[in-house]
Amino acid sequence: MKVYITRNIPEAGLKLLKDAGLDIAVWTENYHQPEEELIKVLQQYDAVLVSGPVKVDRHFLESCRHLKIVSLMSVGYDNVDTEAARALGIAVGNTPGVLSGATADAAFLLMLAASRKAFHMHKEIIRGNWNFWDPTANLGLELGGRTLGIVGLGKIGFEMAKRCVGAYDMKVIYHNRGKNEEAEKAFGAVRVSFDELLEQSDVVSVHTALTPETKGLFNKNAFSKMKPSSIFINTARGGVHNEADLIAALESGTIWGAGLDVTNPEPMAADNPLLNMPNVAVLPHIGSATVDTRNAMAVIAAKNVILALGKRPLEHAVVENIHLA
Ligand SMILES: NC(=O)C1=CN([C@@H]2O[C@H](COP(=O)(O)OP(=O)(O)OC[C@H]3O[C@@H](n4cnc5c(N)ncnc54)[C@H](OP(=O)(O)O)[C@@H]3O)[C@@H](O)[C@H]2O)C=CC1
Ligand SMILES: O=CC(=O)O
């Protein structure tokens, strides 16, 4: 059986695939393989391990009819047409849970960095602008006792709440479609409407998947309901916020600051105005990028491939394997 990997993955995952006797090939160029070329290559493969922003749409899936599984090395699967995969009998796996702590760390880091203008200060030192200690300059916001509003309180949102309650005794409110009883019990989190969350939060942190419902959720209207002293954090997907509206909200003082690990498009252009705003911190989609987490993700993604090709249920399935033994 042959497995294609769309970008190099940690050795822990590669070893599992090799030990299972699978014939593997890895795209190692430092640019993403063009889609049509990838589709052509995949004619020869039984499984693809997707580590990177590959658009797995209906055309892709219909063109790769030998595929038994698309194994994502990510928890998000907004890049996959899951309906088409289900209809075509192609399993889809992902890697939830193991990356929650690392991604919440990135959200927490961005919250702090935005609140103290840390990335901007760093750039100012490099520019030679550290002149004197000024009691009225470079002032940030404190987080102690403030209200954290989480949109999409699932696994990563839970870890973010844990950090904010533990470090700053923040009050947690959240907006989900259903109740998160575990978070209500652990943090006294209170479920509120989307508008209530916008109006009451000092920090709004987005942890929902990108879906047709959440696409562009943070637009001019949403930002206009937030406090002028509030900070917007997005480590979920860039498509959840409208970038032009976010820039306008920051420029007009509608909101105070922002921290982004995800943008739309990615990569963000180097001349994006957000990169020159003192109260904004941007990271290049590195939420899960720690050694331990990436090892764990590679292991799950490899296991999902092995399980699917062995006609067994996946460890984590977005679309279950229909070829079960
Ligand atoms: N920056 C990075 O590197 C990373 C980014 N991510 C992103 O984070 C996302 C979340 O991951 P994870 O926490 O593991 O996922 P979970 O499924 O555990 O949590 C997502 C939460 O979003 C809620 N939700 C879904 N739809 C809506 C909606 N329309 N309105 C409000 N809430 C909604 C769900 O609750 P309910 O169903 O009750 O609404 C759920 O609690 C991923 O989908 C991915 O896009 C993930 C990993 C790394
Ligand atoms: O963005 C990363 C993911 O795991 O989803």
TrEMBL record:
Task: Say if the entry is tagged with keyword Manganese.
Answer: no
Q: Which residues form the D-isomer specific 2-hydroxyacid dehydrogenase NAD-binding domain?
A: 109-287
Q: Name one Pfam family in it.
A: 2-Hacid_dh_C
Q: Any idea which UniProt keywords this protein has?
A: Oxidoreductase
Enumerate the spans annotated as D-isomer specific 2-hydroxyacid dehydrogenase catalytic domain: 3-318
Which PROSITE patterns does the entry link to? D_2_HYDROXYACID_DH_1 (PS00065)
UniProt xrefs under InterPro entries: D-isomer_2-hydroxyacid_DH, D-isomer_2_OHA_DH_cat_dom, D-isomer_DH_CS1, D-isomer_DH_NAD-bd, NAD(P)-bd_dom_sf
> Is Nucleus among this UniProt entry's keywords?
no
Hey, which family's this protein in?
Answer: Belongs to the D-isomer specific 2-hydroxyacid dehydrogenase family.
Q: Which PANTHER family match?
A: 2-HYDROXYACID DEHYDROGENASE-RELATED, GLYOXYLATE REDUCTASE 1
- What name goes with this protein? D-glycerate dehydrogenase
